[in-house]
């Protein structure tokens, strides 16, 4: 039995489960399409939210980032994890109590304006389209490696699958599909890590292995720092980013998390505010399973890559290297003509001859460790589940923003339920076409970096607007609309200039990269909103009473 057959078997079985669930859970009404009927249990929603949250950027790219950048990779761990706490404490209980189906729904009613709703729709489209680009890129990377095809072809295959079960099942189908996908992800991420931790450190728990000793009795991180220094890289535990940039990126990821519409809407699917809090606790537990394992996975992958390839003769290259080389994920140029691979850092006198994509590290990990074929196949199934689960959730938010918030609430209020669902499915197809294009031609080949742009857009637009809408009775329509518009336009312009229009690192404002500029955009949002509020009329009494009511600590469906 070959590795390819084992991969196809595991992935085929998982797809059969996902598609069966999508068909059996097909949405029959707008309430089922948007919020799964509002009756999902806290445990199931906790799993589904964790699957929605653990995207390709988390599953595939985060550990690869940690493997390459070491300490600096912690910005993703701290930002994404801390942001979920903000989301749980400051956002979802109040938005669930408000009782609407989407984030633009809340903003439109809270800021008593169809204009505010329209701006919120635009924000949701920008955020979700940017985010889904990274997911489709992740799908392409995994399918490319799985089938030995190009990344663009892999993106097209993934897009077809996502459209089928997201457009067909709506939130109801996605929710129960994501429960299955979480289980696949959790096992596929942790089981290889357990094997590798024991091989490298003698510890079964990856976390203990990371901070413990190697099988030779040397502290693992000390050994890794020594290897990095020897090869001309900065120490693994040393920070390379400036403190200001590190802070801004972490803060943008954190606040952006609390403003992500596809995660917020997940908590509209449970029965009550109390169920929201219970579901959030389950979600944090399920997320911790992977987030506490990722640093160890990244560090182990780096050690294995160096041991497997550095100074290896061409005749002795492992078979898996050729497989990754064939799909463009890895390459070697024999610069000095000695027939051996040299993997070197900028501080080395020797040239670097090994080129590889950060996002291939997790997929290559079991191959480098020589793990059993079924473990490798399980990991591949998990990689696909991670990318597809989040892509489906994002696609749903995009479609509902267009069908419900734009068409039903603004352009054509007479739309029937059946027509609204039809518009949602048409919008899903259109959004997926655009996302597929940018999955093939992404703003960054690095998945986590592309996704970080979406968090910056959410931090600068939705997070301040939602926070002020919940906790400030004096924030009015003009202030909310102005702040949201300025924050989004500033952040989007900064990202576009440096990613598409030739901006250089020397031109960064205060050294802040595009991944971190969302934090500055967030501060602009707050400043503009409060400044405009002072100069304009206060909100109506009914809106003030609504804000005070949703903050009351009473149970509400």
Plain-language structure description:
The structure is a single chain. The chain has a domain at 3-302 and 370-448: Hydantoin permease. It is built from 23 helices and 2 strands. It has helices at residues 3-24, 30-35, 42-53, 56-69, 74-98, 103-110, 114-147, 151-201, 206-211, 220-230, 243-257, 261-264, 273-291, 294-309, 319-326, 361-369, 373-411, 417-440, 447-460, 462-471, 477-500, 517-535, 541-550; strands spanning 330-332, 354-356. The longest helix is centred in the N-terminal third of the chain and has 51 residues, at 151-201.
Q: Can you give the mean pLDDT?
A: 84
CATH topology grouping of the domain at 3-302 and 370-448: Hydantoin permease
Report how far the terminal alpha carbons are from each other: 53 Å
Give helix and strand order, one letter per element, not per position: HHHHHHHHHHHHHHHEEHHHHHHHH
Low-confidence stretches: none
**What summary fits the major beta sheet?**
2 strands, antiparallel
CATH homologous superfamily descriptor of the domain at 3-302 and 370-448: Hydantoin permease
Write out key terms for the chains shown.
Hydantoin permease; mainly alpha; globular; 1% strand; 23 helices; 2 strands
Short description:
The chain is 72% helix and 1% strand. The chain has a domain at 3-302 and 370-448: Orthogonal Bundle (Hydantoin permease), CATH 1.10.4160.10. The chain is mostly helical and 557 residues long.
How are the SSEs ordered, and which strands pair?
Layout: H1 3-24, H2 30-35, H3 42-53, H4 56-69, H5 74-98, H6 103-110, H7 114-147, H8 151-201, H9 206-211, H10 220-230, H11 243-257, H12 261-264, H13 273-291, H14 294-309, H15 319-326, E1 330-332, E2 354-356, H16 361-369, H17 373-411, H18 417-440, H19 447-460, H20 462-471, H21 477-500, H22 517-535, H23 541-550
Antiparallel strand pairs: 1-2
């Amino acid at each position: 039995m070959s590795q390819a057959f084992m991969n196809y078997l595991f992935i085929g079985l998982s797809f059969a489960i996902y598609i069966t669930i999508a068909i059996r859970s097909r949405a029959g009404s707008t309430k089922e399409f948007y919020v799964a009927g509002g009756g999902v249990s806290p445990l199931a929603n906790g799993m589904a939210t964790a699957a929605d949250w653990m995207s390709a950027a988390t599953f595939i790219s985060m550990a690869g980032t940690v493997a390459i950048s070491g300490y600096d990779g912690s910005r993703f761990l701290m930002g994404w994890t801390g942001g979920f706490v903000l989301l749980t404490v400051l956002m979802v209980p109040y938005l669930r109590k408000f009782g609407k189906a989407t984030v633009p729904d809340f903003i439109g009613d809270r800021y008593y304006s169809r204009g505010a709703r329209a701006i919120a729709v635009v924000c949701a489209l920008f955020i979700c389209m940017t985010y889904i680009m990274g997911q489709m890129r992740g799908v392409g990377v995994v399918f490319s490696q799985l089938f030995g095809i190009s990344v663009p072809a892999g993106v097209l295959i993934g897009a077809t699958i996502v459209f089928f079960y997201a457009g067909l099942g709506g939130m109801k189908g996605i929710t129960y599909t994501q429960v299955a996908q979480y289980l696949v992800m959790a096992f596929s991420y942790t089981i290889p890590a357990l094997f590798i931790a024991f091989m490298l450190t003698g510890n079964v728990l990856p976390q203990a292995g990371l901070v413990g000793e190697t099988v030779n009795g040397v502290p693992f991180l000390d050994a890794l720092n020594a290897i990095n220094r020897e090869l001309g890289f900065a120490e693994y535990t040393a920070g390379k980013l400036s403190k200001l940039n590190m802070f801004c990126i972490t803060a943008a990821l954190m606040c952006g998390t609390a403003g992500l519409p596809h995660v917020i809407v997940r908590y509209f699917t449970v029965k009550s505010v109390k169920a929201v809090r219970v579901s959030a606790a389950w979600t944090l537990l399920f997320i911790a399973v992977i987030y506490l394992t990722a640093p160890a996975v990244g560090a182990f992958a780096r050690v294995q890559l160096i041991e497997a390839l550095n100074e290896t003769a061409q005749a002795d290259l492992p078979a898996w290297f050729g497989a990754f080389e064939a799909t463009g994920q890895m390459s070697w140029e024999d610069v000095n003509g000695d027939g051996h691979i040299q993997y070197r850092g900028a501080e080395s006198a020797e040239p670097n001859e090994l080129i590889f994509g950060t996002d291939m590290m997790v997929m290559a990990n079991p191959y480098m460790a020589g793990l059993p074929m079924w473990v490798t196949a399980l990991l591949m199934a998990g990689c696909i589940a991670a990318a597809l689960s989040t892509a489906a959730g994002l696609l749903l938010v995009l479609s509902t923003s267009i069908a419900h918030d734009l068409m039903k609430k603004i352009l054509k209020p007479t739309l029937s339920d059946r027509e609204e669902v039809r518009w949602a499915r048409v919008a899903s197809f259109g959004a997926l076409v655009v996302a597929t294009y940018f999955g093939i031609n992404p703003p960054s080949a690095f998945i986590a970096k592309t996704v970080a742009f979406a968090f910056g857009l959410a931090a600068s637009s939705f997070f301040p607007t939602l926070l002020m809408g919940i906790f400030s009775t004096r924030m009015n329509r003009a202030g909310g609309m102005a702040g949201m518009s300025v924050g989004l336009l500033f952040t989007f312009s900064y990202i576009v200039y440096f990613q598409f229009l030739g901006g250089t690192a020397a031109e960064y404002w205060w050294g802040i990269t595009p991944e971190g500029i969302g934090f500055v955009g967030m501060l602009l949002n707050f400043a503009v909103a409060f400044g405009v509020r002072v100069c304009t009329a206060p909100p109506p009494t009914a809106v003030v009473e609504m804000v005070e009511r949703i903050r009351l600590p009473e149970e509400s469906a």
